[in-house]
Amino acid sequence: MPKDDLIITGTMENGRPFRPSDWSERLSSTLASFLVDHRLRYSLAVQPCIVDGERCLVVARWLEDADPAAYAYVMGFAHDNRLRIQIDRRSGDRALRPL
């Protein structure tokens, strides 16, 4: 059974929005790479998205096995900044779409 993706929201545990507002793009870019045409491509494992109007980060759970250090870095960021983490169980039309 595949692992569900995780969603790290831009809201801290105390309900306040996390700043800077582009945090998900900045964090995603640490695991991104540049294509031959010099365009940035986000990793399939860590991608920024918007859920219900809020900037979030989708983290594929398979990253934990594929690159434990990268997974620990992203999750450590979320924990250190007290960001909310939830499991994404959406599917079909309600499935998350990256930015």
Specify the number of helices.
3
Q: What is the total domain count? A: 1
Low-confidence stretches: none
Beta content comes to 25-35%
CATH architecture: 2-Layer Sandwich
Q: What is the CATH C level class, in words? A: Alpha Beta
Radius of gyration: 13 Å
User: Tell me, what's the shape?
Assistant: globular
Separation, N- and C-terminal Cα atoms: 27 Å
Helix content: 10-25%
**Assigned CATH superfamily:** Uncharacterised protein PF12112 family, DUF3579
Protein architecture, described:
By secondary structure, the protein is an alpha+beta fold. It has one domain: Alpha-Beta Plaits, CATH 3.30.70.2340. The protein has three helices and six strands, in the order E-H-E-E-E-E-H-H-E. It has helices spanning 23-29, 63-66, 68-80, and strands spanning 5-12, 33-34, 40-41, 46-51, 54-59, 83-88. It has a four-stranded antiparallel beta sheet with strand order 4-5-1-6. The protein is globular, with a radius of gyration of 13 Å.
Helices and strands, with pairings:
Elements: E1 5-12, H1 23-29, E2 33-34, E3 40-41, E4 46-51, E5 54-59, H2 63-66, H3 68-80, E6 83-88
Antiparallel strand pairs: 1-5, 1-6, 2-3, 4-5
